[in-house]
Amino acid sequence: EAQVTQNPRYLITVTGKKLTVTCSQNMNHEYMSWYRQDPGLGLRQIYYSMNVEVTDKGDVPEGYKVSRKEKRNFPLILESPSPNQTSLYFCASSLSGTGELYGYTFGSGTRLTVV
Amino acid sequence: AQTVTQSQPEMSVQEAETVTLSCTYDTSENNYYLFWYKQPPSRQMILVIRQEAYKQQNATENRFSVNFQKAAKSFSLKISDSQLGDTAMYFCAFMKQQGAQKLVFGQGTRLTINP
Asked: Are A113 and A13 in contact (CB under 8 A)?
């Protein structure tokens, strides 16, 4: 089944404790992206990647890191999480050139709480 | 920069009624794509309908249709014969035709269908 897999689905952590949210897609998509969803703000892009070893900042990159060492994986790293990073996170991917046709394929989301 | 505005934070209608969700956007681009996504309580992001800006004809997908007014930069979603399963958060989104495939989302409208 074609899908984007995110883990974990829920995570509660403490301020300052490094964490990684994993994202993997099995569709050979070139383009991958991370979004965060907050009430009243919709979804905002954190980082994106056009291909392996090519990443760039989105609209709200502060406090986040990403890497794209393999085409299928695009982990989101929070080096020192803070409470304002409590949010619902989505990973998404699209086959380059068809994102406009089908939108994105989204993961099922990660609910992160930083206390 | 592009912005998307959904002015109705919440809506509620009775089952079988027709409901229209509003969306306006701001862009200097001439070629772009517009989307409506549905997010049920499961959190999954589901593409409902898409519209190419160069097409004058409004997109339709079964009970879902849009009213695309390019000059007014308006993109409303109409749900006919609403069903309980339509209860969800709905997001309007914009994507430029050229460049990185970034989706810009509105704030969302929480739609409740009452039995």
From this structure: yes
Contacts of A110 in chain B (CB under 8 A): none
The neighbour count for residue B111, using CB atoms within 10 Å, is: 21
Site from A34, A100, A105, A111 to mutate, B interface, most B CB atoms within 10 angstroms: A100
In single-letter form, the type of residue at position B86 comes to D
Beta partners for B87?
A: none
Q: Which of A50, A90, A103 sits opposite B47 (nearest CB)?
A: A103
Return the residue of B nearest to A49 by Cα: B100
- For the segment B40-76, what is each residue's pLDDT rounded down to a tens digit? 999 999 999 999 999 889 999 999 999 999 999 999 9
Cα B6 to Cα B23: distance, rounded to the nearest angstrom: 5
Confidence (pLDDT) at B81: 97
Q: Name every chain B residue with its beta carbon within 8 A of the beta carbon of A44.
A: 105
- For residue A61, cis peptide bond before it (omega within 30 degrees of 0): no
